[in-house]
Amino acid sequence: MSPVHRSINTESKDKKQKHPFAQPLRYVDGLLLDHNQLTKRLKQLDMTDEHVSVTTMTAITGRWGFYTCQRCLNQDPTLFSSFPCGKCQKTCIYCLACLKYGRLASCQSLFHLRVTDRETKPVATGFTFTSTLTSHQLKASQAIIKAIDTTKSQLLVHAVCGAGKTEMLFHGIQHALETGKRVALTTPRQDVIKELLPRFKAVFTRVPLICQYGGSDDNRLTSILTLCTTHQLIRYKEAFDVLIIDEVDAFPYHNDPNLIKQSQRALKDTGTVIYLTATPRKSLLKQKLPTCFVPVRYHGQPLPVPQAQFTSFKRSPLPSNVYKAISEQRQSGRQLLLFVATIKQAEQLLPILREKFKSLNVEAVHATESDRSLRVKHFRHKAIDILVTTTILERGVTFPSVDVYVLKADHDVFDEAALVQIAGRAGRSKSDPAGTVYFFHEGYTKAIKSAIRSIKRMNQLGAK
Amino acid sequence: MRCLLCFKSIEQAVSWHTLFQPVTAQYCAACRPHLTKITGAYCKRCHRPQAKTKTCSDCAKRNQPALLYNRSVYCYDAAMKDMLIICKYRHHYHALSSLTKPVRQAFFNQFKTVKHLTLIPIPVSDERMEERLFNQATIISAMIPRPVFFGLKRHHQEKQAKKNRKQRLQTPNPFYLDPHLPLPTGPVVLIDDVYTTGTTLHHAANVLAEAGIEAIYSFTLAR
């Protein structure tokens, strides 16, 4: 079964007859493939079609120890390795940075699929987004539409946590799809993408939406609207008209130069990039991009200001004042998110919490947990009272009514951006816009200080 | 210096020792596989670890094998399997590089009585070479400083790993000798990555025995 066909098949069977093969074929444009993937693709493609062309290029370019991998754009000389090649009887080079996508050696080739003559036909999207935007959201939404209309433009949308960034995007994406532009929405985190998918499916009911992340089922499909993690952009070159990067400042995107280069390559020359974040890093601000600033949450209430409290964690993973704070918090009726720095700390804390709060349902999630999305779902349905988590839930997730406590807030993993994002988990719903945020720390670090200061400044700007 | 698996850099203390000795390939603490060496009792012919040192039931079934005996270094357990998967199917040439020293030591321990030997790595077919670009048996034979004979060739077949035991024992002999190369004189040691049912090694040994080589041994990384 061809992947191109399958994207339609999942919708319904009679649609398959209505859609000619050539229509979704347009979206294989810009795929970057190795030899194996190409032979699989060519079985499904009609190569007699003169619009389809394949460009061949050398996989690894450069010499004298200075190489560039054309797939992952890695240039670090220590991340290349040489081996005696059995095919060409020479010493060949292979890239270690993208070894997990299949080894690519210097004697192999990369293939770039192009479909020329892509007419820009309007696409029926089945757009169902009815809720009204606030004046701030409307302004941002219009700025996004304007950026999409101008070619070669960049836009930074700097909106506080809970400003409704996703809602601002819908009109812009709808506008792009209507004018036949191909859109990709990417983010560094898998959890965030999984969170966004149902919301997009509800709004764009008739678009064959695909969602790609490590280990997803859609990885071989192509479509006009793609949701994917930034790692998945490795398979595209000059493919998208509009590239939206959500949470640009998140790990691993902000400190992986290859990912940044790959995302630039995935965009067409005439394309538009839109960066979304609540906490832009200095390097991004230095670029002096056109910025759209939204300092108010969608419900208009100020952000909860975190309170820092000195606590010693030397004696126990659950010090007495944290215990007291949790016991008091139980009166408020909100759920509780407990952020910890390391997986080890989460594992130490969990049995103690279960011991002390026997009547409550306490669970923990971290990156090595296999059923973490299930537990997050339970927490959202209020089946779990206290959720202990590492920084994987620091951004992109919305729980209606929670209080947030950070244990060991002085730890290195909690930088300013992380702390602002964590504090932004509280008070996100209209019905309960308040929430308490505590930073329990063993030393008042610069990050804690500047996080609290920047939240206060946002509130001041929003009150004006 | 980077870890062979996760490619993160490994911090190394600089000393006179590290300055003058070439740095060998290695794993970081998190990735280091916990391989188990074969110690204690084993089958005299195929080196399978077992309770008593005697011929195992599988080897007893083979009558007059051309292969005299097999020797291995490690047990073929989960850690070893992972390592070979990374090398053979993820095509990471250097995945086994950290084993050079123990493999060399084990080889000289096991074959110290055999003089003037030649190594013959089990070949891969041209089709497999096209895909993999290297032969994992050649990696292992390159770890041992002894002359190597490359005259053994192989026809293309389905992967051994995809077959069950019965299918493996029934496969036809895929090996043949290159008639243009002079055969090595004296004993030979076949080199392979793993001895599972032994079919591959016995096939290769039969071809060599027919060509007139008398003493044929084998040496594999895992058993």
Task: Describe, in plain words, how this protein is organized in 3D.
The complex is a heterodimer of chains A (464) and B (223). Chain A has 464 residues and is of the alpha/beta class. Chain A is built from 14 helices and 20 strands. Chain A is 31% helix and 22% strand. The radius of gyration of chain A is 24 Å and the shape is globular. Chain A starts with a helix and ends with a helix. Chain B is an alpha/beta fold and 223 residues long. Chain B folds into two domains: 32 residues, no CATH class; 188 residues, no CATH class. In chain B, 29% of the residues lie in helices and 13% in strands. Chain B is built from eight helices and six strands. Chains A and B meet through strand 5 of A and helix 5 of B.
Q: Which of globular, elongated, flat, extended, rod-shaped describes the shape of chain A?
A: globular
Helix content of chain A: 25-40%
Percentage of β-strand residues of chain B: 5-15%
Described by the principal axes of the CA atoms, the overall outline of chain B is globular
The number of helices of chain B is 8
Give the overall average pLDDT of chain A.
Answer: 82
CATH architecture of the largest domain in chain A: 3-Layer(aba) Sandwich
| Number of extended strands of chain B | 6
Unreliable spans of chain A: 1-23
Tell me the layout of helices and strands:
The complex is a heterodimer of chains A (464) and B (223).
Chain A: H1 3-9, H2 13-18, H3 22-25, E1 32-33, H4 35-44, E2 52-58, E3 60-63, E4 66-69, E5 80-84, E6 91-95, E7 109-115, H5 135-149, E8 154-159, H6 165-178, E9 183-187, H7 190-203, E10 209-212, E11 225-229, E12 240-246, H8 257-266, E13 267-277, H9 282-286, E14 291-294, E15 307-310, H10 320-329, E16 335-339, H11 343-356, E17 362-365, H12 372-380, E18 386-389, E19 402-407, H13 416-423, E20 437-441, H14 446-463
Parallel strand pairs in A: 8-13, 8-14, 9-11, 9-12, 10-11, 12-13, 15-20, 16-18, 16-19, 17-18, 19-20
Antiparallel strand pairs in A: 1-7, 2-7, 3-4, 5-6
Helix pairs in contact in A: 5-6, 13-14
Chain B: H1 16-20, H2 57-61, E1 70-74, H3 78-88, H4 100-110, E2 118-121, H5 126-132, H6 136-142, E3 152-154, H7 165-170, E4 175-177, E5 188-194, H8 199-210, E6 216-222
Parallel strand pairs in B: 1-6, 2-5, 5-6
Antiparallel strand pairs in B: 3-4
Domain Helicase ATP-binding (chain A): 146-298
Pfam families (chain A): Helicase_C, ResIII
GO molecular function (chain A): 3'-5' DNA helicase activity; ATP binding; DNA binding; hydrolase activity
